[in-house]
Structures are given as structure tokens and as C-alpha cells.
Write a structure and sequence with these properties.
Number of helices: 8
Family: Belongs to the FPG family.
Helix content: 25-40%
Cofactor: Zn(2+)
Keywords: DNA damage, DNA repair, DNA-binding, Glycosidase, Hydrolase, Lyase, Metal-binding, Multifunctional enzyme, Zinc, Zinc-finger
CATH architecture of the largest domain: Orthogonal Bundle
Number of domains: 2
Distance between the termini: 31 Å
Largest sheet: 4 strands, antiparallel
Structural class: alpha+beta
Order of helices and strands: HEHEEEEEEEHHHHHHEE
Pfam families: Fapy_DNA_glyco, H2TH, zf-FPG_IleRS
CATH class of the largest domain: Mainly Alpha
EC number: 4.2.99.18
Oligomer: single chain
Shape: globular
CATH topology of the largest domain: Helicase, Ruva Protein, domain 3
DNA sequence: GCCCAATGTCGAC
DNA sequence: TCGACCTTGGGCA
């Protein structure tokens, strides 16, 4: 689930269900019990997302910091809330709704200073492009780096919110070889990548899934069978190893890069 | 039942 | 570069 679009969508969904209310806050699993006790019955005043980090603001200055990691999941439902399972780290419940958080890497009560420190170590987020994201800050790092663009796009200090799917897909959409060094990415190329990420990720928030295939390459347009992929969206290369490229018909390749699976089309994305 | 993979990150060596 | 961490679901016996 969790790339930046998921987290921004969650910020919206938590706000829609709980902002302005004073939910019961519990931690059936126990790992967040002390903080839950401090917060329960206080008002959820706002929510925020930066990259893959989610912040739930209670009262004036209390923040719950959530990071889903690879496995974290969030489930919303209507009242009355069913009995929680014993893996629920955090539950909010009010008179109309409940939401359960399971398996997060982080769920902690933090101060405004600690929250600021998290923002400070994150790069610009394409989903905050209309407020405070500066793509040139990302380019300054990229243009000075001998690291591959594939690795740089996953580095949250460089760009916040891009994960393994958007990384693979945006490089394909711009026909960029994932192994090219950051310093060999031209300013116009970075501008195009950033603009594309803004559009793709906004659509991801809207639809709650990642779709990257242009209309002219959809199954209908190309006269090929509908996708059989199971990750939720229509994509060019992600998890399509050894399958034919939607554009050129060549074989999609996969490789390990920094402990993650990289996918690309060597024919469309030439060095 | 067991084993593996998964849209992530950190810290030890 | 590697293991640790958090949880679920699918494939297989």
C-alpha cells in the first residue's frame, strides 16, 4: 500500500471521519497504551502528511507520528466498531466511525519540535507542490550525485513520498535508464520528472491506487488482454518482470538495487 | 501448518 | 551490505 499518495489520502480520510471530534483513543495491542490514555477524549484538530509520514494533531500541540513501513495497514469502518483484533496498534472511535492501524513501523506521540525535525530531514514532496515543496532542492542533490537516479528517487532526503512503484514507473515514462547517475540528469529532464510525479501522485490520492499507463498504451488501445496484475493499478513495468513491454514488446527486466526490486525495459530505457 | 514476499527504513559492521 | 522490525495473504504440503 504505502507510497506517498496513500499517506496523503489517509490524512484526508482521518480528517473526514474524526477532525473536530473527540474520539476514544485506544491501543488494543498495548504498544501505544500510555499515549492513547493521554489523548483519549481530546479533539483531533488537524492531520498532515509529508512524504510517507502521517501526523495526527490533537488539541493544540500533541501529534501522533505514524509511519506504515512496508506492512502497515489502516482500516476504516462505521460505528459501532467491532471488537478489535490483538494486532491493532491504534484505534480511534467516535459516534459515527472507527479506524484501526496495524503493523506500523512508527506510532508515537511527539512534540512540535520533534515533528519539525522530521520535516527537516525530508526532501520536497510532490504532493505538497502547491504549498512548500521546492523541486530545485531535489535537483541540487541529484545533479551533484554519482548515485543512480533509481536510488536517488527512493531517498526520502532527496524526494519525499516516492516509493518502488512510482520510481520504476516515472523512469519508464521518461525513458530514463535507472542506472544513469544523478549528475547526468539534465535540468529539463528533472523538471519533466517532477511535473509528472505531481500529476501521477495527485491522481493516486484521488483514486487510492497507482495508475501510470497513458491512454494510448492501455490494453484497449493496444489491442491486448486486460491486465492480470494484482497490486491494484495499471502500470508499465512494476512487477512485470519477463513480461512484454506495453510499448515496444521487449522483455521487462528486474534486478536488485539497494535491497529493493527494480523493474525497467532495457529497450525503451537505453543507457 | 510453513515459507515467502510485500508499495519501507534504520542501525550495526 | 546485511539483518531486524512490523503484519498479512498466497502458494504449497
Amino acid at each position: 500500500m504505502p507510497e506517498g499518495h496513500t499517506i496523503h489520502r489517509l490524512a484526508q480520510d482521518y480528517a473526514a471521519a474524526f477532525q473536530g471530534t473527540k474520539p476514544l483513543v485506544t491501543s488494543p495491542q498495548g504498544k501505544f497504551s500510555d499515549a492513547a490514555e493521554l489523548l483519549t477524549g481530546s479533539e483531533l484538530t488537524r492531520t498532515e502528511a509529508h512524504g510517507k509520514h502521517l501526523f495526527l494533531g490533537f488539541r493544540a500541540t500533541d501529534w501522533i507520528h505514524i509511519h506504515l513501513g512496508l506492512f502497515g495497514k489502516v482500516t476504516f469502518g462505521g460505528a459501532p466498531a467491532p471488537p478489535p483484533t490483538d494486532t491493532v496498534r491504534l484505534r480511534l472511535a467516535n459516534s459515527t466511525a472507527y479506524v484501526d492501524l496495524r503493523g506500523p513501523t512508527t506510532c508515537a506521540l511527539i512534540t512540535p519540535a520533534e515533528k519539525q525535525a522530521i520535516h527537516d530531514r525530508l526532501g520536497p514532496d510532490p504532493l505538497r507542490a502547491d504549498t512548500d515543496a521546492d523541486p530545485q532542492a531535489a535537483y541540487r542533490r541529484i545533479s551533484r550525485s554519482r548515485t543512480t537516479i533509481a536510488a536517488l528517487l527512493m531517498d526520502q532526503k532527496v524526494v519525499a513520498g516516492v516509493g518502488n512503484v512510482y520510481r520504476a514507473e516515472v523512469l519508464f515514462r521518461h525513458r530514463i535508464d535507472p542506472y544513469r547517475a544523478g549528475k547526468d540528469i539534465a535540468p529539463v529532464e528533472w523538471d519533466a520528472i517532477w511535473t509528472d510525479l505531481v500529476g501521477l501522485m495527485r491522481e493516486g490520492v484521488r483514486n487510492n491506487r497507482i495508475d501510470t499507463v497513458r491512454p494510448e498504451h492501455t490494453p484497449e488501445a493496444m489491442g491486448r488482454p486486460p491486465r492480470v496484475d494484482d497490486h491494484g493499478g495499471e502500470v508499465y513495468v512494476y512487477r512485470r518482470a519477463n513480461l512484454p513491454c506495453h510499448v515496444c514488446g521487449g522483455e521487462i527486466r528486474t534486478a536488485d538495487l539497494a535491497a529493493r526490486n527494480l523493474f525497467w525495459c532495457p529497450n525503451c530505457q537505453k543507457p
